[in-house]
């Protein structure tokens, strides 16, 4: 397999197209994903010390988490802002927004909030897609109040996160896809805890910690796991399936995805896919 060169402009454009395209599919599988996502949200709010009356920013909010949960905690005296690159994701989040939450289209790499705008910045599996992580961390430190907290989740190595990696691995093997360029942003680009801790410290954060956390994903069946992967696969990947096998619904392809999680099947038929994430916590010096 050859390695493609990284183009940051093309990457951003593709990300926007992809997340827009899968927004409704992602929402249709929300219950499956939140089997693991909800406990991570709870842990992030705990790490961030989110409480009534605070101002909270959620980077890469997608269809609204953890912003919606944070809004319930900060209450009417608080304020939550969720940003995401994809307008259609933001539209779905806004449809569910309470009065104290605002969702807007925004790029993590070009945030323009005033200094000290937020008490807490949250991100659940969104920071990995930043093109310039060092600049992003500096911006986050700037928009936090002195003593404000960044609490974020990012994925560990692919092998340790089967919920997110196993289906794609099957598809990549069947389609003989090229590998991406080393160091490019992507789901597993922040898997090195020592590197991330060093980058946060370089950006001016104090009290930096990186913890491993096992996300308890539970899917009702291998077939449901295949369906999850199908609805969240980006259009370019579906085009390749159609070109190679004649239809995006190619039965052997999705059967192979389902078969890949058979080793994780429990006696009750459900599929347990514990996946390791890194939980980051860092305090702004102001």
Automatic annotation (TrEMBL):
Keywords: Methyltransferase, Transferase
UniProt GO molecular function: S-adenosylmethionine-dependent methyltransferase activity
GO terms of biological process kind: methylation
SUPFAM superfamilies, per the entry: S-adenosyl-L-methionine-dependent methyltransferases (SSF53335)
Domain Methyltransferase type, residue spans: 57-151
Pfam families per record: Methyltransf_11
InterPro entries xref list: Methyltransf_11 (IPR013216), SAM-dependent_MTases_sf (IPR029063)
Protein's pathway: Lipid metabolism; Phospholipid metabolism
Keyword hit for Methyltransferase: yes
Leader sequence segment: none
Protein's name according to its UniProt entry: Class I SAM-dependent methyltransferase
Organism: Nocardia panacis
